[in-house]
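task queued by scheduler; priority normal; single chain, no ligands, no partner chains; default sampling; output format set to structure tokens
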Amino acid sequence: MWVGLCGVVHAHEIKGSGNILIQGNSNKVEESAAPSKASNAPGESPQAIADEKKELANSADTGHSRLLILTATNYETKKIHKEAEKVGLKIAKEAVRDQVVYNMGTLGGVEVFHMQTGMMGMLEPNATPLALMSVFRDIHPQYVVSTGIAFGNKGKGQTLGDILISRQVANYETRKEKNGEILSRGDKVTSPMLPLVNASIHNWKGAKVHQGLTLSGNALVNSESFLHYLAQREPEYLGGDMEAYGVYSVSSMMGAKWVMIKGISDWGDGTKNDAFHSIALHNAGQFIFHMIQDGNLK
């Protein structure tokens, strides 16, 4: 079923002095929309609903593992589709509960799906956690991979374009503030896909891979003063993004293994621009399909 997705991306940006600016953005695609097969039509009988649920359950029982790739912007989607086509995958667009899901076919014994969420971050109505939750029971993925661009930590031996993989994820916004003192709260959670990811790093010949603590929050970080705060809070962090903690929250609740694999496109230090977006996304996408093709996710 071919449908269109209308989405406007908004971002909170921390820039310069550390003040938070609301930055409107674009990335708007408009096409004709068709109803999803997974939506219940008005007046549908209980038996029809039961039959539909049974059909969805049977469609998930194919004997293959399923992996869902998540992106947050149109450009990230364009680049991940380009990398998918390089390994021979064919992309079919379908509607699933008011979301657009791309069925990419089978690679390395794994059924591969992709979804672009409606918003960057974790708190907006159609941001990653809610969008992922809305399609989870229909797709039944065993693995969820969050990809796109991330900011790195230039004090950790990184180069723009390198690949950042979350060994652990922490939400840097979870804290207690009392009398001018900031106390960290929340968990550092370990990705359950690490053994499978590591098995594919051993024979990887592409861009350099960095594994470690990734910080995640709802702000687009582009401020040296904010980086100083992050370094004080988590001295070992390797970089950060806006979606990984939300992916962990939903995936772990639904019983799927998850990981963040993103390309380092900037340092989040006030010098952010688009110059390294393309190479960062190319490298991250190339590694993801290498990992799938490797056959460890069957």
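post-processing summary
- The helical segments are 46-60, 74-86, 128-139, 194-201, 224-233, 244-254, 277-293.
- DSSP finds seven helices and 16 strands in the chain.
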